[in-house]
Design brief:
By secondary structure, the chain is α+β, with helices and mostly antiparallel strands. Helices cover 34% and strands 25% of the residues. It contains two helices and three strands. Strand 1 and strand 2 form a beta hairpin. Helix 1 packs across helix 2. The chain starts with 13 loop residues before the first helix and ends in a 6-residue tail after the last strand.
Length: 91
């Protein structure tokens, strides 16, 4: 994490950071489910959208997740890889 004081250190588990990103992504209108895989260099997000246009959902998710990644306060924030799709057919 970014150091604001020279004598203070902090850490963040990847699973916890991925959970924060997933919670933020699920709050976007039209998102049915989200899967987040977080590594040191990349946040890979796959979302399923069920009633809005995919481009609108992708734009909203890009803005929300970009703010969430900056809000984590990491020294080297990961790049965002975002995939939005429709749910599969039933039956």
């Amino acid at each position: 994490m970014r150091r604001t004081h020279a004598d203070v250190r902090a850490g963040l588990y990847r699973e916890a950071a991925a959970l924060v990103l997933r919670d933020r992504a699920v709050e976007v209108a039209g998102v049915q489910s989200v899967r987040v895989r977080l590594s040191r260099a990349k946040a890979d997000v796959s979302a399923v959208s069920h009633f809005r246009e995919l481009d609108d959902v992708r734009a909203d998710l890009d803005a929300v997740l970009g703010d969430a990644i900056r809000g984590l306060g990491l020294a080297r924030p990961p790049s965002l890889s975002l995939h939005v799709r429709r749910p599969g057919k039933k039956g």
